[in-house]
């Protein structure tokens, strides 16, 4: 029934389904949240709405202001959705390393793009730092609010609702939650709530195998969009995490392809990494346990990349 609410009220309330064909027989049940059901096809709609509305409430963001952010595309697209719905100008700093679909989607929703060149289309610590500094310069302009997602303490609250959905949909039977780490806001926010409900629930962080910083390794170039910034993100809270899994880019890409072909679930590379790590945790916990992870965004955002492009 029509309620008169705008598009922002469509954020959240995503479905959860079990994986069947990619999961080995000695594994726990693996449940995945289909976060592409959010309006822009990404879980980042949740955090974009939280960052904007928290800033509106305390006066950091006022009518007529411009919003600025650096992003690989998913957060930028989500901010573009929120800013379009609320009437803010949005300036985005991104890079040629990210998929063309993400860049085009941001522009379609009204964002103004500034692109920072990458090193051969890979994600490196230098690229992320260059993007941040470009956004910092824009943020010095008058009447500008920089959401600054890596350091924004409002952002984990955007995922509190996601945690409550997981708790409700599993009827409290969740034994482990697995999630890739970019800003660490989603793992932080979900872990905070799940551990209030069930202190023994395990939270597993996922990072690129080529840049295993959270595991104590050295930063490196990789091709898993949206995660692995090359250093420990400010929102990272080791006290909320029970383990870290490093997944190689090519393995994550191959799992993304398998999910599409064997499960009918078309998601991005970081979602493929999530499933690999969830299966590892599921085999440790064994049959009868329940592991939840996220399909972070839609595979439609990556059709022009080598994840799905026909060779």
Total count of helical runs of at least 4 residues: 8
Instruction: Tell me the distance between the termini.
Output: 45 Å
The tally of beta strands, per DSSP, is 10
Q: What does the average pLDDT come to? A: 95
Determine the CATH topology of the largest domain.
Rossmann fold
Please state the overall shape, judged from the principal axes of the Cα atoms: globular
The helix/strand series, from N terminus to C terminus, equals EEHEHEHEHEHEHEEHHE
Could you list the spans in which at least 5 consecutive residues all have pLDDT below 50? none
Number of domains: 2
Provide the spatial order of strands within the biggest beta sheet: 1-2-10-7-8-9
Beta-strand percentage range: 15-25%
Output the radius of gyration. 18 Å
Helix content: 25-40%
Written description of the protein model:
The radius of gyration is 18 Å and the shape is globular. The chain has two domains: 7-37 and 159-302, 3-Layer(aba) Sandwich (Rossmann fold), CATH 3.40.50; 44-146, Rossmann fold (3-Layer(aba) Sandwich), CATH 3.40.50.1100. The strands form two sheets. It has a six-stranded mixed sheet with strand order 1-2-10-7-8-9. It has a four-stranded parallel sheet with strand order 5-4-3-6, sandwiched between helices. Helix 1 (44-58) crosses helix 2. Strand 7, helix 6 (185-197) and strand 8 (202-208) form a beta-alpha-beta unit. The protein has eight helices and ten strands. By secondary structure, the protein is α/β, with parallel strands linked by helices.
């Amino acid at each position: 029934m029509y309620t008169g609410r705008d598009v922002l009220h469509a954020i959240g309330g995503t479905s959860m389904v079990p994986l069947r064909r990619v999961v080995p027989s000695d594994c726990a049940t693996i449940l995945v949240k289909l976060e592409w059901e959010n309006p822009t096809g990404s879980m980042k709609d949740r955090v974009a709405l939280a960052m904007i509305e928290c800033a509106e409430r305390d006066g950091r963001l006022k009518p007529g202001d411009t919003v600025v952010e650096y992003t690989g595309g998913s957060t930028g697209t989500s901010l573009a959705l929120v800013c379009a719905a609320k009437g803010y100008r949005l300036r985005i700093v991104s890079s040629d390393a990210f998929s063309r679909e993400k860049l085009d989607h941001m522009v379609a929703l009204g964002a103004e793009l500034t692109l920072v060149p990458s090193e051969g289309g890979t994600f490196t610590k230098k690229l992320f730092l260059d993007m941040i500094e470009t956004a910092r310069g824009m943020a010095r302009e008058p009447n500008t609010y920089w959401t600054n997602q890596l350091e924004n303490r409002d952002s984990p609250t955007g995922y509190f609702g996601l945690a409550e959905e997981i708790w409700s949909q599993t009827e409290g039977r969740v034994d482990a939650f697995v999630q890739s780490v970019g800003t660490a806001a989603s793992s932080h926010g979900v872990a905070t709530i799940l551990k209030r409900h069930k202190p023994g629930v395990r939270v597993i962080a996922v990072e690129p195998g080529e840049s295993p910083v959270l595991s104590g390794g050295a930063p490196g170039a990789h091709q898993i969009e949206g995660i692995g910034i090359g250093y420990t993100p400010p929102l990272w809270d080791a006290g909320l995490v029970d383990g870290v899994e490093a997944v190689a880019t090519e393995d994550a890409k191959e799992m993304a392809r398998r999910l599409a072909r064997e499960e009918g679930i078309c998601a991005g590379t970081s979602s493929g990494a999530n499933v690999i790590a969830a299966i590892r945790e599921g085999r440790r916990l064994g049959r009868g346990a329940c592991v939840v992870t996220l399909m972070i965004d839609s595979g439609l955002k990556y059709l022009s990349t080598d994840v799905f492009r026909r060779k």
